[in-house]
Write a structure and sequence with these properties.
CATH superfamily of the largest domain: Cobalamin-binding domain
CATH architecture of the largest domain: 3-Layer(aba) Sandwich
Number of domains: 2
Number of helices: 21
Number of strands: 22
Helix content: 25-40%
Largest sheet: 7 strands, mixed
Radius of gyration: 23 Å
CATH class of the largest domain: Alpha Beta
Shape: globular
């Protein structure tokens, strides 16, 4: 089938609300009373058998607006997939383009892309002669980097099979295939695996090694005989204790430790590593995409969590953990148990992702502090009750925040607050009043104020598409410093108000409690890597 015909067929489907379609055909979010029919395997021939295939997992380069802080974090999702492949006796290697090309930057307009460029990646591909390539893309902003990799792979290893996964591919697999042809003028992506890839990718490789393909496989999307097949994401991993620990040993961990710019860029440790104790968040904030992909909240056993911490300490000599859970304390009983168990481990930790305020109590905060927590991110998101309820769709008890901050300060814990402003329907008066309240009454150690963006995969994204306030292409260029979706507020005025608030709040913190400020940023201030003149501070 000709490329133009394939592209036309793909584009026909892109006018649908893919998010609703995705959620209605996923086991954990399907309407009550709807039973999934039993899956009937459709095994077909697919290429030559591969004896002991060589598999490579790639984390792509990262593209960010120039104002943003660079990050260098081991790709946790890929590491989980890699460890599952190892457990299945599959020959697997990893390349994280971000850490391998940390100092290599490509600047285009207001965007900077950092990481291993195509020529350097080609050398690694030629050296390895891999059969199957897995690429994970976390952010829609990085889709061009995905296609740069797939194009590079096909030029160097034309007979290889490329499989793509991640948040955007999970919800929009047809778009992934369509954009592939748009970017590369030919097919380079062979398959998409939706949702959790640990078991799905293992099953795919086992069949591929036999020269076979299951065109009905759970969550698999791709081509067969030039026809596109799209399978729904059915099963969710129920017992995540069964998963082996992430395969960090396949990455150059000493490079991450040397760079030391993890998820939260102001670490207290020198050897920092990300970790998950739970998966999923069922809250459903309107601006969040993660909640739709990982909706069901599942937790690891306390024993399993402690075992991994002990392994990370002995294997990598880590001195800090940054929890990457989407909702770390959603199960408050589980949270109390795991943090009480962590008290014996003598490790400091923080929560770069927002912690749900309604799932915190003074008792829980104290247990968390006793277990090593030095900073907590409080996911406030708005200082206005109407905005939270009607626009964010987020349950937050604003009255509890001052008490939580006070408790944290008493325990010596830094508090970081997050705000998401500029939602459609929000007024400039509500935003400014919220800023004044935060400055006057909430003694956060630091605050980040972001402008709401129509992130692909969120409810907000599809509503903005429906109202034709934004295009798909515009939404993929995520920039939380620019107002693009609130037509009731002058964009430039809102951006200036945020810049003013961030600068004023930083000065308030420094004058109100200079000792706390110095304690948080001490390491960076001494290293000369911290520019205090940037709004909220920024690494240099």
């Amino acid at each position: 089938m000709k490329i133009k015909k394939i592209l036309g067929r793909l584009n026909k489907t892109l006018g649908l609300n893919e998010l609703r379609e995705y959620l209605s055909n996923k086991e954990e979010t399907t309407p009550r009373g709807v039973e999934f029919p039993k899956n009937q395997k459709k095994i077909v021939n697919y290429g030559q058998p591969l004896r002991n295939p060589k598999v490579l997992l790639i984390g792509p380069c990262i593209t960010i607006p120039r104002y943003m802080q660079k990050r260098c974090i081991p790709p946790l999702g890929l590491c989980y997939v890699a460890s599952s492949l190892e457990k299945a006796k599959i020959n697997v290697s990893m390349i994280d383009c971000c850490v391998e090309g940390w100092d290599i930057e490509r600047i285009e307009g207001n965007l900077v892309t950092y990481g291993l460029p195509p020529d350097k990646l080609s050398e690694r591909l030629i050296e390895g002669q891999y059969d199957i390539i897995g690429v994970s893309v976390l952010f829609s902003t990085d889709l061009p980097n995905l296609y740069e990799i797939t194009s590079t792979v096909k030029k160097v290893l034309p007979n290889s099979t490329i499989v793509v996964g991640g948040l955007h591919p999970t919800i929009y697999p047809r778009e992934i295939l369509s954009l592939d042809i748009e970017y590369n003028k030919k097919r380079t992506v062979d398959f998409v695996i939706r949702g959790e890839g640990e078991y799905r990718f293992v099953d795919f490789i086992k069949l591929r090694s036999q020269g076979k393909l299951d065109t009905s496989a759970d969550g698999l999307v791709g081509y067969h005989n030039d026809e596109i097949f799209v399978n729904h994401q059915r099963k969710t991993i129920q017992n995540i204790d069964d998963l082996p620990f992430p395969a960090f040993h396949l990455l150059p961990m000493e490079k991450y430790f040397k760079i030391n710019v993890p998820f939260s860029p102001v670490p207290q440790g020198d050897r920092v590593i990300p970790m998950l104790t739970t998966r999923g968040c069922p809250i459903g904030c309107s601006f969040c995409a993660n909640t739709n992909v990982w909706k069901k909240h599942r937790k690891r056993s306390v024993e399993n969590i402690i075992k991994e911490i002990q392994y990370l300490k002995s294997e990598f000599n880590i001195d800090e953990i940054q929890f990457a859970d989407d909702n770390l304390t959603f199960d408050m009983k589980h949270a109390l148990e795991k943090f009480r168990a962590m008290e014996k481990e003598n490790i400091v930790w923080c929560t770069p992702n927002g912690t749900m305020i309604n799932k915190l109590t003074p008792e829980l905060v104290e247990v968390m502090a006793n277990s090593g927590m030095y900073q907590i991110t409080l996911s406030m998101d708005s200082a206005n009750a109407r905005t939270l309820k009607e626009l964010h769709h987020k349950p937050v008890n604003l009255n509890s925040i001052p008490g939580l901050i006070k408790k944290c300060r008493e325990l010596g814990v830094f508090t970081h607050g997050t705000l998401v402003v500029g939602m459609p329907g929000e007024t400039i008066e509500e935003i400014i009043n919220g800023f004044e309240y935060v400055k006057k009454d909430l003694h956060f150690t630091s605050v980040s104020a972001f402008i709401a963006a129509a992130i692909p995969g969120s409810e907000l994204y599809h509503e903005m598409l429906r109202q034709k306030r934004i295009t798909r292409k515009q939404a993929r260029a995520i920039d939380t410093t620019k107002s693009k979706i609130n037509i009731n507020i002058d964009a430039e005025a809102l951006e200036k108000e945020i810049e003013k608030f961030q600068s004023e709040f930083t000065n308030i913190v420094k004058s109100r409690d200079p000792e706390e400020y110095d304690r948080k940023y001490k390491k960076l201030l001494q290293s000369g890597r911290w520019d205090e003149n940037q709004c909220g501070g920024k690494l240099t």
